[in-house]
Write a structure and sequence with these properties.
346 residues; alpha/beta; Rossmann fold; seven-stranded parallel β-sheet; five-stranded parallel β-sheet
């Protein structure tokens, strides 16, 4: 990018502010324009410095990071990357922040050093290119249908990355309890996927769980790939099961959307693939393989994507049949996966 990304670092720890700033300053495309110890200082600094991106601690005095983020997203929407502790409480708050509109999150390392925040550099650059909208500007998602019957043996696979927490919550909240058997790969740190699956299970009608090796694929169940350690695949046969494969990252990711999509194709069953918001191109080739094999495919449109990277790559490859805004995806997905005798017009 022509201009450096201006970043404001907000953290109540002087040490953390220094480490985060040092990590970001190591990249010539980033400029740390200021730091703040709490939301009150941050509010003043935002007005004076007009940063492109905010890094925000979860737990701070005077006002916690979640409350401050909510105010930002309502009054002055801007890209925010959360910096979270690895505790269960910190993870839950970070997921709530991603729902509110934070672009991404990183975990504070067990051993504090500038090198440990290297991952934050890429996330800040991605955040600077993201599309952030005020809370209330996003259309409400469609309610789950009162009567629905999935097609026998139909498999639904969904891939997402940056912005995917909010997108998946929107889509899955429109699913009925008897949704098609669904597998999801969301690029997310390993510490977050278990809590995210539990969160989805609480707010969505279907049963949602983090995928475990050997779990049988069943309608009414949604399986989320665990973060970091393995790829999620499906084993072919009369009774497909989840398989966690500890192989090398693909497209820089483990789990990879492409790996999951490719395994769905090998099932040789009726299938639908969906690509949601995210940076990069993971999932584009796999979605094309689904379409080439006779499956149906959908992509999130540019306007509603936080980062129009993965959907764009898939669309340009010819992998996407239709692009739709986020709030229209759930009805369209369900229509493609419905029993033909009960199918409605999406």
């Amino acid at each position: 990018m022509a201009d450096r990304v201006k970043v404001l670092v907000v953290d109540d720890s002087l040490t953390m502010r220094g480490l985060i700033s040092a990590a970001l300053k190591s990249d010539p495309e980033i400029e740390v324009v200021g730091t703040a110890a709490d939301p009150l200082e941050a509010r003043t600094a935002i007005k004076e410095l007009n940063p492109d991106v905010l890094t925000l601690d979860v737990e701070m005095p005077n006002m916690n990071g979640l409350e401050f983020l909510d105010k930002i997203m309502r009054l002055r929407p801007m890209p925010v990357v959360m910096v979270s502790t690895l505790t269960a409480a910190g993870t839950d708050v970070t997921l709530a922040a991603l729902e509110i509109g934070a672009v991404d999150a990183v975990a504070k390392p067990a051993v504090a050093s500038a090198e440990a925040f290297h991952e934050l550099i890429g996330k800040v650059k991605t955040a600077a290119r993201s599309r952030v909208r005020a809370r209330g500007d996003v259309p409400a998602a469609a309610a789950a249908p009162s009567a629905y019957r999935p097609a026998p043996n139909h498999v639904l696979a969904i891939g997402s990355s940056t912005g995917g927490v909010e997108a998946l919550l929107t889509v899955l909240s429109g699913f009925p309890a008897n949704c098609p058997a669904t597998v999801i790969t969301q690029h997310m740190p390993a510490t977050f996927t278990s809590s995210f699956a539990a969160r989805l299970d609480r707010v969505c009608a279907p049963a949602v769980s983090e995928a475990v090796d050997g779990a049988p694929l069943k309608p009414g169940h949604i399986y989320l790939a665990p973060g970091g350690a393995a790829h999620l695949e499906l084993t072919p046969g009369l009774s497909p099961r989840c398989r966690l494969v500890n192989s090398e990252p693909v497209n820089g990711h483990r789990p990879s959307v492409d790996v999951m999509f490719d395994s769905v194709v090998r099932l040789k069953r009726p299938m639908t693939g969906v690509i949601l918001t995210g940076m990069g191109k993971d999932g584009a080739k796999g979605l094309k393989a689904i379409r080439d094999a006779g499956g149906r495919t959908l992509g999130q449109d540019e306007t509603t994507s936080v980062v129009y990277g993965m959907p764009k790559a898939a669309f340009e490859l010819g992998a996407v049949e239709r692009q739709l805004p986020l709030h229209r995806l759930a009805p369209a997905i369900l229509d493609l996966c419905a029993d033909p005798a009960a199918r409605s017009v999406a």
